[in-house]
Amino acid sequence: MAAHATAAETMTLLRSCTTALLVSLAAVQALAGEMSRTRTLTEPVYVRPIYGTYRQCGGACLKSGSLSWFCGARQQCSLDCAIAPPVRRCASP
Residue 75 in 3-state DSSP? Predict the structure, then answer.
């Protein structure tokens, strides 16, 4: 019977190790996904550009009121009202 108990303990240990390995692999993949999704933030343009294609961005903060700026055509607008003065940025996807 001792050999049978050892086999059961071995199976339990293998299941535990497999579960731990799968959980750590999922965590690494999630971290890699977040790192690949980080966007590069660049400075916006505050005067309407003459050349190139740009998108007009706008937003409002409680204390600053409405704000507007310009980003590249493929960039996303980003506004952070948590600090003063508000930070306006252009994010590349």
Answer: coil
Averaged pLDDT, 32-49: 72
So what's the pLDDT on residue 88? 93
- Residue 93 and residue 87: Cα distance in Å, rounded? 18
Q: Do 60 and 35 form a contact (C-beta atoms < 8 A)? A: no
* 50: its two tokens: 């003459």
CB contact at 8 A, 42 and 89 = yes
pTM metric for this prediction: 0.55
Residue 66 has what DSSP assignment? E
* Averaged pLDDT of the chain: 76
pLDDT of 42 reads 86
* Residue 81 backbone phi and psi in degrees, to 5: -90, 0
- Give CA separation, 46 vs 14, 24, 59, 86, in Å: 61, 45, 13, 14
- Using the structure block, give the residue that is written with the tokens 């050892």: 6
Contact 22, 29 (CB under 8 A): no
